[in-house]
Design goal:
Layout (H helix, E strand, L loop, with lengths): L1 H23 L12 E6 L2 E2 L4 E7 L8 E5 L2 E3 L1 E4 L3 E5 L7 E7 L2 E11 L14 E4 L7 E2 L12 E4 L5 E3 L4 E4 L3 E9 L2 E9 L4 E6 L3 E5 L3 E3 L2 E6 L8 E4 L5 E3 L4 E4 L3 E9 L2 E10 L2 E7 L2 E6 L2 E4 L5 E9 L2 E8 L2 E6 L2 E4 L10 E8 L2 E10 L2 E8 L2 E4 L12 E10 L2 E10 L4 E8 L2 E4 L12 E7 L5 E6 L5 E5 L2 E4 L7 E8 L2 E8 L2 E6 L2 E4 L5 E9 L2 E8 L2 E6 L2 E4 L6 E8 L1
Parallel strand pairs: 2-9, 10-16, 18-25
Antiparallel strand pairs: 1-3, 3-7, 4-5, 4-8, 6-7, 8-9, 11-14, 12-15, 13-14, 15-16, 17-20, 19-23, 21-24, 22-23, 24-25, 26-27, 26-53, 27-28, 29-30, 30-31, 31-32, 33-34, 34-35, 35-36, 37-38, 38-39, 39-40, 41-42, 42-43, 43-44, 45-46, 46-47, 47-48, 49-50, 50-51, 51-52
């Protein structure tokens, strides 16, 4: 009986121990040390849909075994590890703490996640959706972004920069007719404006004059007579000349005649143009006499140089200065712009005169003569300083006289044409002086009544020297570099002037008592009446001749006579064209 009790007691103790161990390991016994924790989350604020990283411990590796809430609103877990959960802020969430529940254990963040307003998608607008412009600089347009863009910048571009360009400030410049799209880009968001560049805007443009006729140096004025346009303010007019050697024009429409010829003046206003034809005639200066007074005709209008007795023998124009050489009260005289200077006053004689004037580089040369001690002194004045031209030594004539006809200056050389003469034998010898040295043109023995004359000298661009006059055994002749060319065998004929242009040799004078013009030795009578062609001048292939017909001063232009206004017997001695 006692043995049974011992074994029973032992069995009971074992059962109690087993029961005790089973109770400790049962489901109702709480775990210790593995509850989840939240150490941080980032970002700490954001809009719905923002991805949030939650850092902590004791998370479940399976996303579905982790319950995450923003306040009372559950969030979707996209990935999970024991230390990191990735979630998105759920719709409906408000600013609150974040909780994580794992196996019934809850972890709560210490900080609050702030739910922000969701940014609305950026959109921009322009002040213009479409523009119509004209292809000229005056018709630019400014585009602007009218919506708020904060501190963002705008990038502008044109789809066709040959039609219109746009700068960094949105200024659109039209260039040619066509269409382009201007785009404004702000952080990838764009807005556009269609720019159409069209013809226009001027519909009518007329000038007040279809043409002007001017003389060289004159001015005229053109103005816009009619201007109609589809805009209130057009571009400024632009004036131009197609031949500035003939006429120039300022931007106010003021025209200046520069040289002979024809030019077209054009005014342009945007898409329209109007023109005016400008015909410029050269100024024609003719020196001579009328009623025994020295006169100067300019473009046919007479100016009396002095009310006293005298005449004008030569005219030369240098820039704006007009020089006239001649005689006043039996003294050699020079007029400059109408002001007279007597070059010598040693005697009074009808032969005293200044016969020719030439200006070179501002230096004024005048040829002439004055009676001194019963002979004539051949004189050259250089800027008013007198020189007596010398004769060759050993001459048989005593006294030796000289009558000068013409002076010409070329490349620093001074050429004077004239005649050496003696009174007792009535002999005359054509002579040329080069820089003061006498070069006889004829071999004259100064026998009684042996005559040759040199009236005029001209030097061409080849430095060939031409002298017009009368030969000893001939009538009208000219010498080229000392070689004589006979124009007429009639002893009474004379070549009074020579001019060379474009290789053509022109000589004016008289033949059979009629005014004549020789062109390359071919004679043309300028009138059937009596007279003389005293001087020839060629400008732009137009031939001008001054002279007289039946005691009336006459100017021929390409053979057409123009009687110069006069009050009595008159004579045209010299012509200059500029």
């Amino acid at each position: 009986m006692k043995k049974f009790s011992t074994w029973a007691a032992l069995a009971l103790s074992v059962c109690l121990f087993v029961l005790s161990c089973g109770k400790d390991d049962g489901p109702d016994t709480p775990k210790t040390g593995d509850a989840p924790t939240i150490t941080s989350f980032t970002p700490t604020s954001g809009a719905v849909g923002t991805e949030v990283t939650i850092n902590g411990t004791n998370f479940d590796d399976t996303s579905a075994n982790n319950t995450v809430k923003f306040g009372d609103v559950a969030a979707s877990v996209s990935s999970a590890t024991a230390t990191k959960l990735m979630v998105e802020v759920p719709t409906g969430a408000t600013s609150s703490k974040i909780t994580v529940t794992v196996d019934g254990e809850i972890a709560t963040s210490t900080g609050t996640f702030t739910v922000t307003e969701e940014d609305a998608p950026l959109s921009i607008a322009l002040n213009e959706d479409a523009l119509t412009l004209y292809p000229y600089p005056a018709y630019t347009a400014m585009l602007e972004v009218t919506t708020a863009i904060g501190e963002d910048t705008v990038a502008w571009s044109s789809s066709d920069e040959t039609v219109a360009t746009v700068d960094a400030d949105g200024l659109v410049t039209p260039l040619k007719i066509g269409e382009t799209t201007i785009t404004a880009n702000v952080g990838g968001t764009t807005a556009t404006c269609t720019v159409s560049v069209v013809d226009g805007p001027v519909t009518k443009l007329e000038l007040d004059k279809e043409g002007l006729e001017l003389f060289t140096g004159d001015t005229g004025e053109l103005s816009i007579f009619a201007l109609e346009a589809d805009v209130e303010q057009t571009s400024a007019p632009v004036w131009s000349s197609d031949n500035t050697d003939v006429a120039t024009v300022g931007q106010e429409g003021n025209v200046t005649a520069v040289g002979a010829g024809q030019a077209t003046i054009t005014v342009t206003v945007d898409n329209a143009s109007a023109t005016s034809t400008i015909v410029v005639q050269p100024n024609v200066y003719v020196a001579g006499r009328d009623n025994n007074q020295p006169v100067l005709w300019i473009n046919g209008e007479k100016t009396v140089l002095s009310e006293e007795n005298g005449y004008a023998r030569s005219v030369y124009v240098d820039g704006d200065d007009v020089y006239v050489a001649g005689q006043l009260n039996k003294h050699p005289a020079l007029w400059k712009n109408g002001e007279v200077t007597l070059l010598a006053e040693n005697s009074e004689a009808v032969e005293n005169e200044a016969t020719s004037v030439y200006v070179d580089n501002g230096v004024v040369y005048v040829a002439g003569q004055e009676r001194r001690n019963s002979s004539f002194a051949p004189l050259l004045w250089v800027d008013g300083t007198e020189q007596v031209l010398p004769f060759l030594e050993g001459g048989i004539i005593d006294p030796q006289d000289g009558l000068l006809g013409s002076v010409y200056v070329k490349e620093g050389k001074i050429y004077v044409a004239g005649t050496q003469t003696t009174g007792f034998a009535q002999a005359y010898a054509a002579t040329l002086w080069e820089n003061g040295l006498q070069v006889p043109l004829e071999d004259v023995s100064f026998e009684f009544n042996v005559v040759s004359y040199a009236y005029s000298v001209f030097v061409d661009d080849n430095s060939d020297v031409f002298v017009a006059g009368k030969g000893q055994d001939e009538g009208a002749v000219y010498w080229k570099n000392g070689a004589k060319n006979v124009l007429s065998g009639v002893l009474s004929s004379r070549a009074k002037s020579v001019y060379v242009s474009n290789g053509n040799v022109y000589c004016s004078g008289f033949l059979n008592a009629k005014p004549a013009l020789w062109t390359n030795n071919q004679v043309e009578f300028l009138s059937d009446d009596g007279g003389s062609a005293e001087e020839v001048f060629v400008d732009n292939d137009v031939v001008y001749v001054a002279g007289e017909v039946s005691d009336f001063a006459t100017l021929w232009i390409d053979g057409e006579p123009m009687e110069l206004p006069s009050e009595a017997s008159s004579y045209a001695h010299s012509v200059f064209v500029k």
